Amino acid sequence: MSAPPTTRETSPPVETRDELVAYLASGSKPQTDWRIGTEHEKFGYRIGDYSPMPYDNAPGETGATVKAMLEGMQRFGWEPAFEGDNVIALMGNDKTGGGSITLEPGGQFELSGAPLETLHDTCDEVHTHLDQVATVAGEIDAGFIGLGFAPRRSLADTPVMPKGRYGIMRNYMPKVGSRGLDMMFRTATVQVNLDFSSEADMVQMYRISLALQPIVTAIFANSPFVDGKPNGVLSNRAHVWLDTDADRTGMLPFVFEDGFGFEQYVDYALDVPMYFVHRKGTYVDVSGQSFRDFMQGKLKGLEGDRPSLDDWENHLTTIFPEARLKRFIEMRGADGGPWRRLCALPAFWVGLFYDKASQAAAWDLVKDWTVEEREQLHRDVPVHALNAKFRDHTVLDIARDALAIAKDGLKARARSDGFDGDERGFLAAVETTLDSGRTPAEEMLDLYNGKWQGNLDNLFAEFSY
């Protein structure tokens, strides 16, 4: 959500809808060129009182800050990106292996990883990043924890990062849902971006992605605390998304309709309300207006201005369904978590999609699910996770079936030329969860009600990076 905008405002304007369709279609590539991109967010805090780090200290104040983290990370080769006078992101290069480090609205620290060939590569990237973060954090008395929802900070206590797009979103969110500000400032996720070979391949992958996203939400449920105590929900991150902004979130039933393809997604995105347009280093508030109007030069405040493909790319990043289509497919359904689960999520999806037999088996698993059943799973899983009911089964049963397919897919990859070593080991964290039938959230609740005696200080002590 937080990647720096593209700013090539001298590029030619988009003249037709076909150009937008062609942009998405250009993501198609042969399987030999498929890569894995992993993104994850985490919460930073000050050692001592576990309070969130502000972007910078006010005059006379001391303590760890997000700005100090960004400055400290530059020793590893990361290059600063600015908005005004503020460093708001770090861009990768050959020295860092690519990727970027960006800030979510409440200071959540996000690694957007480089596109990598194997799960060994992507897990090495995650490990290197967390090691760098821990090094800098240790020097400024900061810590980081991987969860899906900030367990103690209130909205009022959460700092706001100095990024213009977030000011626009902050003003718009309360108009379209009751939980949008919680989504912005108090949630964190891990995501994986995967490639497709053709429109037909994209369609099947996208349908599987949306159908299984609630299953993944259940497996990775890791956010049972709100405002310092349990609130009866196992994935508060997923629960928040149920009432954020119906125009740009959810399970997208039209994806399962006959004839779905790049054109239909473009038609959907054209009518998703915009947030902003980036012009001359400034975010212009066009919230509530459509990209379709932009194509016709009818945006209020930007009359006569027409979009470039850069504007289209930026707009696509402001659409938040459970799985998102860009020039790849982005799986968005998992809570943030510890190192091993950050590697397990891409392993799960790669196992399902990057072997054709496994992809076909995954489609067989979900192809007869109805719109109503998918929507019910979407609503039930944040609360009940693996115990949510589905037909005569539970989500745990489906998750075990999906895991078996993913393991077969990774085993097939290990037999392919060019891959060194079996990648199935990265599914160990998922196997542990499904063997026990208990989510990470339930394990934390057991500790809270037992060993921790209701003291969440122990959560930070035991689960920080």
Proportion of strand residues: 15-25%
Output mean pLDDT: 96
Helix content: 40-55%
Sum up the overall morphology in one term: globular
Number of contiguous helices: 17
CA-CA gap between termini: 23 Å
Biggest sheet architecture: 9 strands, antiparallel
What value does the Rg take, in angstroms? 21 Å
By DSSP, the count of extended strands is 17
Which structural class is indicated by helix and strand composition? Answer: alpha+beta
Q: Segments where pLDDT lies below 50 for 5+ residues?
A: none
Give a short summary of the structure.
The protein is an alpha+beta fold.
Provide tags for this entry:
465 residues; nine-stranded antiparallel sheet; globular
Task: Characterise the protein shown here.
This protein is of the alpha+beta class and 465 residues long. The protein has helices at 17-25, 66-73, 119-139, 164-172, 180-186, 199-219, 236-241, 262-271, 291-295, 309-316, 339-353, 356-366, 371-384, 395-414, 428-436, 440-449, 457-463, and strands at 36-46, 79-83, 86-91, 100-103, 109-112, 142-145, 189-194, 225-226, 229-230, 249-250, 276-279, 282-285, 320-321, 323-325, 329-335, 389-390, 393-394. Strands 1, 2, 3, 4, 5, 6, 7, 14 and 15 form a nine-stranded antiparallel β-sheet that branches. A two-stranded antiparallel ribbon has the order 8-9. The model has no long low-confidence stretch (mean pLDDT 96). The chain is globular, with a radius of gyration of 21 Å. The protein has 17 helices and 17 strands.
